[in-house]
Amino acid sequence: MKKSQLSDKQLEEILGQMPKVKDHRDSRDIYQNIAHRVEKRKKMPTWVIPGAALAAVLFLAFILSPGLMGVNHSADKSIESNYASDAKSSMEMDTAVKDDTANESASQEESTLMMDAADGEVEEKSKKFAAMDNANPYDGLISLYAEEVDTETSEILTYAVPDEQVMAIVPVTVTALKEEGKSWIDSYTETMPKLMEKEWGLTDYYPMGATWNFDEATKTLTMDVKQNHPYRDGSTPNKMFVETMTQNFSIAGISKIILTTEGKPGIDVGNFGPMDELPLNAEAKTRRAYLFLTVEGMPNPYLVPTTEQHKTIGEAFAQMWKGDETGYLSASLPEDFSQAQTKKTEDDILEITLDKNTTLDESFLPNLEAILMTASEFDYSGVRFTNANIDQLGPFNLNEVLPLPLAPNKKNIN
Hints:
Keywords: Membrane, Transmembrane, Transmembrane helix. Residues 90-111 are annotated as: Disordered. This protein has three domains: 8-133, no CATH class; 149-284, no CATH class; 290-397, no CATH class. 37% of the residues lie in helices and 17% in strands. The protein has seven helices and 16 strands. The strands form six sheets. Strands 3, 4, 5, 6 and 9 form a five-stranded mixed beta sheet that branches. A three-stranded mixed beta sheet has the order 12-13-14, covered by helices on one side. The radius of gyration is 57 Å and the shape is elongated. It starts with 7 loop residues before the first helix and ends in a 17-residue tail after the last strand.
């Protein structure tokens, strides 16, 4: 307990409130007692008086202690109350601070999680956009387009392959990486064994069991076959041989093919008789129409050029909505397309104005590719549609000039 802080005046007031004490003894008795005590004082030890004083102080302290204890106890209770209040306030503040800190931490954690989630979404979207950027918009189409291949690093190789019935010759296009020091003819002949004609629903035709040698100076290609080569038996094999060789090399800048059998001039080509060379005419393989050859198991029809050449693209379109004379190759344009009007613009764009009753949808996509491939045979630089009922068809924006394909019937050999 703490020491009392009462003043002298407060002590006097407290002492004044104490009960008065009266002495009822006779004065003579008092005097006699005093005299006797004075006489004894001389004989009294020196410690008696201080002891008495101490006893008096203790007596007063005992009398005053309840009040003092009450006052001090009240003060202590006030102090303790204040301390408890301060402690409680401190605890409440600590709790509030902790709560605020926890809330702030939770908020920061939630913000971090939200930021992480946002970053994850952005990353995911970035991946999707990257995938979209890397995706080939022409994937699934029939022909090969410029956006699909880097001609600086890849060779475009087109092979004429007979179909399973040996009734039509299908041009099939693959690509191969260019190699330093390797010529186009080397890439062409070395890729022949990689073709998968049977998987493509065609005749297993390559490699041809021949050796090849190209003379760059004279632009001639020498083909040497074995004595028992397969192109001499029957009319169909030798006809197909001449047609496939002509299609393969006429547009490759080769003027003629020199034919030899095991090093000796000429080969036996059945109904064509012995042939020493096969002249190539690049002009004979242009201005053709493209028709459909449907093969079971293939997702798209093959685009097959006609053997006939046409003076105008209008004539080519006329054959495209009829098919060939034998009916083996089917029409590549719907009948209502016959009402379309065509003209060539000053910048060599083929402009096709559709009839108001012509309705285009996704099923027209193979027909559109046949149009684009045919337009490439007539030296157009692109195709533009007017009066189309839709704006987009596959990857093609029908409000813009459409690009022409590089080659038909693309296949993957990698």
